[in-house]
Specification:
heterodimer; A: 516 residues; alpha/beta; Rossmann fold; six-stranded mixed β-sheet; 22 strands; B: mainly alpha; ABC transporter involved in vitamin B12 uptake, BtuC; two-stranded antiparallel sheet; disordered N terminus; binds adenosine-5'-triphosphate; binds magnesium ion
Chain lengths: 516, 336
């Protein structure tokens, strides 16, 4: 298109003088709602730039504008110093600007390989060059150290694997600018480390990297510069070395943040509400035994794939399972989520887009779906529903630009809050929360932790599954650690620390304190 | 607008987005057709013609109300036309067989009606169980049962026509041709079912569950919706409604043959789609379906009444309308 000196001089030093991609006075509205206000931003080749902000601050919107998925309402996008208007995301990709979405953008029924080459298949003459595509795919997957085979169907692979496929797809595009919207939200630490190594490699090649994350420690570690957005406005841009994590958090939320975790509850004396005996989910979980007391917060730690989610899905009747379930001393048969609900157990899924929320519907039908029987005798009481929505919006601080908004258009964090509200509407006595703060900003995290604590204080029992070690350690009074489908051990009180959890999760220690 | 949250409240006050094409499109199309009809033929708005159009719409309309639920839940039923013929055939056989014991009056007819409903129920159950329990695609199951029902009625009629006992027919006739307050029975039944359907769709847990299943079955499952039960209920409801439609249809001709109800399934599906229900599921509206049925029947009626376009082109015009309706749905989604 235009002369672009940066393409030839792709080194961090020589290119550092001119931004490769920039925004000048960009605003964006959706209908009557303005979400970005006069944002200026620049991104240099060979830098890792972190964009941070609360849920709904406009990070995803800004990234979509940078990569041609959305147009600015006013203002300019500048590529190589000249204004551009990408006609489409394909156009942006052709010019070297690639976005990995917060939501996956993969064709579910196609294989990993087909997805990576979707739209730009390699050909030999008229026919597809399967050999070359397979070779490149294998090479990319090997670089990302994933064990996912190239032929696997995307609908069958796990969430982190999908994220890795997205990253492989972006790598295959040879991007000059790689934009990643919360790439690590669904990755384990190990997987995130692999990603960071790739980021370093790309950076050394002069690729400009913009990414967002709610994990501020991660930002502090890998970003060169940080930009903070608050309520759609640019707050500051500064070298990461000049910002402490606390300073970042404060800039994001606009106020000082006190202790992230509330004090721990003490539920030692309380009666047992849930007992699982020799509980197995065929092929995945073997002979799990654990119990849960009233007012207790029980953490479940372990590597991704250790069977935590599957164990809980077995418990709530989504997956076929064997073994004994006792709720309040009574043996229960739970064959469906409805049975679980009747037994007072609710499960909040880790996959809010595919299992949690109806993205094409509004907030009200989503909120009441699980507890719909509470709102309907013969007819659904719409007024009661509206009131429940009001209450949930208040209680969970759900920030939606309008009441009628489709859930797909809510920011990720607000979707999570809506999902929490939906689960709690069923008034469960036992709440199982799988990855409670995935993709959630630090201020909201604090809210959610306090909320979980309040549940325990009200005499409900909570199970928290989390891949964020700090979360389990900070919240739980007892932690069960799973490894390859078994409960490897349970830690209590002062014994709960990172080292002990890792040892159990990796099988380095035979210290099984019995599965009490 | 100073910040995102105040902008938000402003948006709440202005309320819903202004009426979009997706909502008013079918209504505008219907009004336009009525206007065209009225301008082209003075008889168009006469009592006789209006009654005729509405009564003829009733059969497809009653079926299409049931179809709206099935499609909203992400399913499909291709067998309803054949099912109607099969039910009509069996109903006639049952009534004829009962004449010696119950006579030629209402007892026989009521028994016939009960049989029609029971057979519709069973046929819907047959489709529904194969789809939800044997986990076969709805398209395949109902394509199969479409052939089965059609061939069964042909076999029952021995390739010809099954005719209702002549005296029974005389008693039964008014169910199609009479009415109260000048409104024919089929119209009353159709409108009552449509009104009920609309309420069930929008104001009951069943309607909500259908939409939830159609938008994302996984989410529905995780939200304590009995997915299989709700889908099964949809097919059974549709089967029963096919039975109702047949009850209204049999007194019209008093016979059934292998050509009864041919292409009804396509008309019913078309009406549902024209009315704005999403073919992939997840969103459905019964009032739209009613308008869809009326649009399809009005086109036919106008072509018959005027000699502007040959009535033989009826199918072509209906086809264009169906495609247009889907294009309008698509456009709404594509806004960037
Ligand atoms: N298509 C849309 N229509 C209406 N509002 C929208 C649309 N897309 C986004 N919004 C609104 O714009 C605001 C900013 O959303 P955005 O997704 O950019 O936030 P975010 O900073 O990425 O948040 P998160 O950290 O939760 O992902 C939110 O209030 C969101 O509801
Ligand atoms: Mg986002």
């Amino acid at each position: 298109m235009q002369p672009a000196p940066q393409t030839t001089a792709r080194t961090a030093t020589s290119a550092a003088h001119a931004p490769i991609l920039a925004l000048a006075g960009v605003s964006r509205s959706f209908g009557p709602v303005q979400v970005l206000f006069d944002v200026d931003f620049d991104l240099y080749p060979g830098e890792v730039h972190a964009l941070i902000g609360e849920n709904g601050a406009g990070k995803s919107t800004m990234m979509k504008i940078l990569s041609g998925y959305l147009e600015p309402t006013t203002g300019e996008v500048m590529l190589d110093g000249a204004p551009v208007s990408f006609t489409s995301s394909e156009d942006a990709e052709d010019r070297g600007v690639v976005l990995i979405h917060q939501e996956f953008n993969l064709a579910d029924q196609l294989s990993v390989e087909q997805n990576i080459f979707l739209g730009r298949e390699l050909k030999r003459g008229l026919f597809l060059d399967h050999k070359a595509m397979r070779a490149t795919t294998n090479e990319l997957l090997a670089r990302l150290e994933t064990k996912t085979p190239a032929w696997a169907t995307v609908s069958k692979i796990s969430v982190p694997e999908k994220q890795m496929v997205e990253i492989a797809k972006a790598l295959s595009r040879e991007a000059r600018v790689l934009i990643m919207d919360e790439p690590t939200a669904v990755l384990t630490r190990n997987e995130a480390e692999i990603l960071f190594r790739q980021i370093e490699r790309l950076k050394a090649q002069g690729t400009a990297i913009l990414y967002t994350s709610h994990k501020l420690d991660e930002v502090a570690r890998i970003a060169d510069r940080v930009t903070v957005l608050r309520d759609g406005r640019h707050v500051l841009t500064a070298p990461a070395s000049e910002l402490s994590e606390d300073a970042m958090a404060e800039a994001m939320v606009g106020r000082e943040l006190s202790n992230l975790f509330p004090d721990k509850a003490d539920a030692n004396a309380a009666e047992t509400v849930l007992v699982l005996k020799d509980f197995s989910v065929p092929g995945i979980v073997e002979n799990a035994n654990f119990e849960l007391r009233r007012g207790e917060i029980l953490g479940f730690a372990g590597l991704v794939g250790s069977g935590r989610t599957e164990l809980m899905e077995g418990l709530i009747g989504i997956r076929p399972a064997t073994g004994e379930i006792r709720v309040n001393g009574k043996a229960r048969q739970i064959r469906s989520v409805d049975d679980a609900r009747k037994a007072g157990i609710a499960y909040l899924t880790e996959d809010r887009k595919e299992r949690g929320l109806l993205l094409n519907q509004g907030m009200r039908p989503n909120l009441t779906l699980l507890a719909l029987q509470k709102f309907s005798r013969i007819l659904i009481d719409r007024d009661a529903e509206e009131k429940a929505l009001d209450r949930s919006i208040r209680e969970f601080d759900i920030r939606a630009p309008s009441r009628e908004i489709k859930v797909a258009n809510l920011s990720g964090g607000n979707q999570q809050k809506l999902l929490l509200a939906k689960t709690m509407l069923a008034e469960p006595e036992i709440v199982i929360i799988d990855e409670p703060t995935r993709g959630i900003d630090i201020g909201t995290k604090q809210q959610i932790y306090q909320f979980v604590r309040r549940l325990a204080d009200e005499g409900r029992s909570v199970i928290i599954i989390s891949s964020e070690m700090a979360e389990v350690i900070g919240l739980a009074t007892r932690v069960a650690v799973m490894r390859t489908g078994r409960i490897a051990g349970t830690l209590k009180g002062g014994d709960i620390n990172e080292d002990a959890i890792v040892r159990l999760a990796m099988g380095l220690e035979k210290k099984a304190e019995g599965n009490d | 607008m100073t910040d995102a949250t105040t902008a938000g409240t402003a948006a709440v006050k202005t309320g819903r987005p202004s009426l979009d094409l997706h909502v008013i499109g079918p209504i505008v199309a219907l009004l336009a057709l009525i206007l065209i009809g009225a301008l082209m033929n003075p008889n168009f708005l006469s009592y006789g013609n209006v009654t005729n159009v509405l009564a003829r719409s009733a059969f497809i309309g009653i079926i299409a109300v049931g179809m709206t639920f099935v499609i909203t839940a992400g399913g499909l039923d291709l067998s309803v036309g054949s099912m109607a013929a099969f039910i009509a055939g069996l109903m006639i056989i049952v009534m004829n067989a009962l004449v010696p014991t119950l006579g030629t009056g209402w007892p026989t007819i009521l028994a016939g009606m009960a049989a029609a409903l029971a057979i519709g129920f069973a046929a819907g159950l047959f489709n529904g169980l194969l789809i939800t329990q044997a986990r076969i695609e709805a398209f395949i199951v109902t394509l199969g049962s479409m052939g089965i029902f059609r061939s069964l009625v042909t076999w029952l009629a021995d390739g010809g026509t099954l005719s209702l006992n002549f005296s029974v027919r005389e008693v039964y006739r008014p169910v199609y041709y009479d009415g109260i307050f000048g409104i024919a029975w089929p119209i009353i039944v159709f409108l009552a079912i449509a009104a009920l359907g609309e309420i069930v769709m929008r104001h009951t847990a069943f309607g909500r569950h259908c939409a939830a299943i159609g938008s994302n079955e996984q989410v529905a499952r995780y939200s304590a919706v009995h997915v299989d039960r709700a889908r099964l209920a949809g097919y059974v409801l549709l089967g029963v409604l096919v039975g109702v439609a047949t009850i209204m249809y049999v007194p019209r001709l008093g016979s059934a043959s292998s050509s009864t109800g041919v292409l009804w399934e396509l008309e019913a599906i078309a009406a549902v789609i024209i009315g704005g229900t999403v073919l992939k599921g997840g969103f459905g509206r019964v009032w739209g379906t009613v308008i869809g049925v009326l649009i399809l029947n009005l086109i036919e009626n106008i072509l018959n009444l005027t000699d502007l376009v040959s009535p033989y082109l009826n199918g072509a015009i209906q086809g264009v309308i169906i495609i247009l309706a889907v294009v309008l749905q698509r456009q709404k989604k594509a806004t960037r």
